[in-house]
């Protein structure tokens, strides 16, 4: 909305500042932060009133959670998504299709997560939406987004996979790009969902990944910087930096309430949506492989679950004391703050490694 103020910049020269993505990214970040910070307490009070006993705690999870987390409301993702949506509508270029595609995936994944949270709260069970139906719904949404990307970009390159550390090496996936991209988006959404198991554990790595991909979006969408860094230029992708900035701001506001001991949980409403957002931005900017590095913590959490399930079904033995892996460290005696802060450190290191691929080519 504010982007249209540049139409009056010939009369009021200071309005020309709204042309700059960096300025609007900062505006989106502050807007989302203030919205979540101000609206947070009323939203939490409302959710606590509506949910009664709050999010049901798994009986097969860490025993300490049954004592410390009972009664905490969930669906905190509504706070984040409201802040992100408001900030994006105010500060992003409304004519940019990438913004609408990524925002559409985010809100659609959020709706799936909301339905899952709703079933858990109303039925007071950790078993929510059917897993198979949920994956199918996510895959269809993600595939539609990837098809749209394939039509937006430059021919051939729009359906190609680029590799970090190599200047010109790309593989044209053709029609398989839609399937591959959908796998990335769905995988990212569910990986973040698995990570959201301790107070503050998921939201900070999400902010780190969003900040990283905001930078990547800006550079990939700027022909001068893309040429200098010798990364692939994606016209229009720079506007996604505004959306990523909104996530960082909303995440900071949410962390105020989600810091241990949490006043509210993000729930599937937030974790599924934010993971889907990060995955979609990675596909849009042609940095799918960089996502595996920057979001390495999410990958580790997801892989720990896959390994645990596969090992138990094949051998009857467990590799970890409990999965996802953050619960394994809980069982080993690490305190919740120790796990959370150490995982934050890992996320920062992985983000720095991932961002280094922009220059090491």
Description:
Strand 1 and strand 2 form a beta hairpin. The model has no long low-confidence stretch (mean pLDDT 90). With 361 residues, the protein is mainly alpha-helical. It has one domain (22-299, 343-356). A two-stranded antiparallel sheet has the order 1-2. 65% of the residues lie in helices and 2% in strands. The chain has helices at residues 21-51, 65-68, 77-91, 97-123, 131-152, 176-195, 203-220, 223-229, 240-258, 267-284, 288-294, 296-315, 325-331, 336-356, and strands at 160-162, 170-172. The protein is built from 14 helices and 2 strands, in the order H-H-H-H-H-E-E-H-H-H-H-H-H-H-H-H.
Number of beta strands = 2
> What can be said about the biggest beta sheet?
2 strands, antiparallel
Measured on Cα atoms, how large is the radius of gyration?
A: 20 Å
Shape: globular
| Low-pLDDT residue spans | none
Fold blueprint:
Blueprint: H1 21-51, H2 65-68, H3 77-91, H4 97-123, H5 131-152, E1 160-162, E2 170-172, H6 176-195, H7 203-220, H8 223-229, H9 240-258, H10 267-284, H11 288-294, H12 296-315, H13 325-331, H14 336-356
Antiparallel strand pairs: 1-2
Key phrases:
361 residues, mainly alpha, 14 helices, 2 strands, 65% helix, 2% strand
Briefly, what is this?
The chain is mainly alpha-helical. It contains 14 helices and 2 strands.
């Amino acid at each position: 909305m504010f982007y249209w103020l540049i139409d009056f910049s010939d009369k009021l020269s200071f309005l020309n500042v709204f042309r700059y993505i960096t300025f609007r990214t900062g505006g989106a970040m502050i807007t989302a932060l203030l919205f979540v910070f101000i609206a947070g307490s009323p939203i939490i009070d409302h959710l606590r009133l509506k949910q009664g006993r709050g999010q049901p705690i798994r009986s097969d999870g860490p025993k300490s959670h049954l004592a410390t987390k009972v009664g905490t409301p969930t669906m905190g993702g509504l706070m984040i998504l409201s802040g992100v949506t408001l900030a994006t509508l105010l500060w992003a270029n409304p004519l940019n299709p990438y913004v609408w595609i990524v925002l559409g995936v985010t809100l659609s994944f959020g709706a799936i997560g909301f339905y899952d949270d709703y079933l858990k709260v109303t039925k007071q069970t950790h078993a929510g939406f059917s897993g198979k139906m949920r994956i199918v719904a996510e895959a269809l949404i993600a595939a539609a987004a990837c098809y749209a990307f394939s039509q937006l970009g430059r021919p051939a390159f729009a359906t190609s996979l680029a590799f970090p550390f190599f200047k010109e090496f790309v593989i044209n996936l053709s029609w398989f790009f839609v399937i591959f991209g959908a796998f990335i988006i769905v995988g990212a959404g569910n990986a973040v969902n698995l990570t959201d198991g301790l107070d503050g554990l998921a939201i900070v790595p999400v902010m780190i990944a969003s900040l990283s991909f905001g930078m990547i979006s800006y550079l990939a969408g700027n022909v001068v910087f893309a040429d200098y860094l010798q990364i692939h230029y994606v016209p229009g992708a720079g506007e996604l930096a505004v959306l990523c900035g909104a996530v960082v701001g909303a995440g900071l506001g949410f962390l105020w309430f989600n810091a241990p001991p949490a006043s509210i949980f993000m729930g599937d409403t937030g974790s599924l949506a934010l993971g889907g957002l990060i995955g979609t931005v990675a596909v849009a900017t042609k940095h799918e492989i960089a996502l595996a590095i920057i979001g390495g913590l999410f990958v580790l959490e997801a892989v720990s679950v896959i390994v645990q399930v596969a090992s138990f079904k094949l051998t009857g033995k467990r590799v970890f004391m409990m999965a996802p892996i953050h619960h394994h460290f809980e069982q080993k005696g690490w305190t919740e703050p120790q796990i959370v802060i150490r995982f934050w450190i890992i996320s920062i290191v992985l983000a720095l490694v991932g961002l280094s691929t922009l220059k090491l080519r």
